């Protein structure tokens, strides 16, 4: 009896078929999953944004208190000093050395940056976090799985999990007062600012204004609009008269949005999985044939 005549057992047949089927299913799953894992396309030029001029901020915390009132959050006895499930924005103070060599204090408002191509959106497996066409990164709590992938993915460490709510915990952060925007109103923090340190408008127009301010006052501002290019761009932009690294802003951020890099990897996965499937199938066939060769003398003896 030749090697090709040796019957294949039902178990071995199913094993071979299973190996190929698993590979094909994995390949199809990755191809289907790519659009779901990729973040939404960048918003149009009409998307909203906020420009914060740190040279105008006096640290009054009107923005933080207005945020709490507008979102129905517990009012603190003192101004908040960090982001939490009950704090969507706060103002921190930094002692700096100004351009003329004197010591001074600069105040920085912190909140969600509403990235143009948001990592939290890309990381969310349930599409609970999503990028609205208007610009803000908003949230559908009924879809949230509580996995906290958005927390891990955010390059600015913004989202906060509601640990105290054991029944229906949610992710909390600044939503740029999305409900107010739907009513034609500005975000509460912008409306409450008494010094004009914050401006609300179209992101493209705010960027043009920021660069015009820098060009008109080169000795007042550093030549950098934070958020224009960082991690692919953000909807919250900053102007400053001192380097941003002295104000606690993260340094070394890529200009490419992390989801874009992830998408490049995902685009390669079908090829990689297809190659692995072919390799595993070939190895299984080779192993089976080798096993059959070792059985030939025994089969011959039985025939004699």
Annotation keywords:
alpha+beta; Alpha-Beta Plaits; globular
Give your account of this protein's structure.
With 304 residues, this protein is α+β, with helices and mostly antiparallel strands. The chain has 2 domains: 10-37 and 267-303; 48-256, Alpha-Beta Plaits. Helix content is 39%, strand content 13%. It has helices at 10-37, 62-71, 119-123, 149-153, 178-182, 188-192, 203-216, 258-303; strands at residues 48-53, 90-97, 103-110, 129-131, 137-139, 160-161, 171-172, 198-202, 236-239. The chain has a 3-stranded mixed β-sheet, with helices on one face. Helix 1 packs antiparallel against helix 8 (258-303). It is globular, with a radius of gyration of 28 Å. Residues 2-6, 17-40 and 263-270 have low confidence and may be disordered.
Would you spell out the secondary-structure blueprint of this structure?
Blueprint: H1 10-37, E1 48-53, H2 62-71, E2 90-97, E3 103-110, H3 119-123, E4 129-131, E5 137-139, H4 149-153, E6 160-161, E7 171-172, H5 178-182, H6 188-192, E8 198-202, H7 203-216, E9 236-239, H8 258-303
Helix content: 25-40%
Radius of gyration over all CA atoms, rounded: 28 Å
Distance between the termini: 11 Å
Average per-residue pLDDT, rounded, comes to 81
Spatial shape: globular
The CATH topology of the largest domain: Alpha-Beta Plaits
Largest sheet composition: 3 strands, mixed
Quaternary class: single chain
Instruction: Name the CATH class of the largest domain.
Output: Alpha Beta
Strand/helix succession: HEHEEHEEHEEHHEHEH
Strand order of the largest sheet: 8-1-9
